[in-house]
Amino acid sequence: MTSNYAVLGSPIAHSKSPALHRAAFAASGIEADYETHELAGGLANYISTLDESWQGLSLTMPLKEEALDVAEQLHPLAISTRAANTLVRVSGAWLGYNTDVMGLQQAVSNQTFETVGILGNGATARSAAVAFEDYEVLVWARNTDRAMAITESYGGRVSSLNDALSCDLVVSTLPAGALEPLLGTQYQGVLIDVAYANKGTGSHFASSISGLEMLLWQAVGQQRLFRTGQFESPLEDEAAVLAAMRSAIGMGE
Q1: How far apart are CA 39 and CA 173, in angstroms?
Q2: Is-contact 116 132, C-beta < 8 A?
Q3: Above 80 in pLDDT, residue 1?
Q4: Could you read off the pLDDT of 134-182 as tens digits, one per residue?
Q5: Catalytic residue from among 18, 27, 32, 64
Q6: Is 199 in the active site?
Q7: How far apart are alpha carbons 207 and 220 in whole angstroms?
């Protein structure tokens, strides 16, 4: 029986997750289908309609918080970030995980930095705060109270926009199109803009990392979960899977 998987969220038509996961399954010779479903809410009702062929779901905005209530068991990272971007069915029960933390860490694994500026206050910002909790973290958001809530939960301090943008590593979790109007000068750090549709933001920094790197690695974490039930250890054929996934979304080696 073919196993079924999907990415859920709204808006979802632009998602590159189907290309990533279909390529990963194909590279390993696994018979599986991965779809896209527009869903802005009602996750519990949606899941109740799925038959036993459904083995895993990827979740994007605005479902990452709602997934916490749907999952019958949560991984510690999903609990600490208060966000689950992955649901995996195990023995009939849906388990919730967060692979965004892994995605962010892997995306910048070849960078050297001491200070991290986080822009935004949503689920991905919380994942970034956990991912970089061992560094000096500055958080900026239009809503200062929400920025403060992140620092109170995960450490770091609320900062001005300019101070956050002046960090060694800047992680923008702002929606597509929201960052560039805020940039007024050149900055000496490295930017990772998780809104990978943005094209011009990186030119304001000494260097930049495509948000596709985070997308890729969080999807690798999901593939590990879909196949083995844990994301801490690489797949046996992960090099081939990575190459196929990169190719599927037009990324270089």
Answers
A1: 21
A2: yes
A3: no
A4: 999 999 999 999 999 999 999 999 999 999 999 999 999 999 899 999 9
A5: 64
A6: no
A7: 24
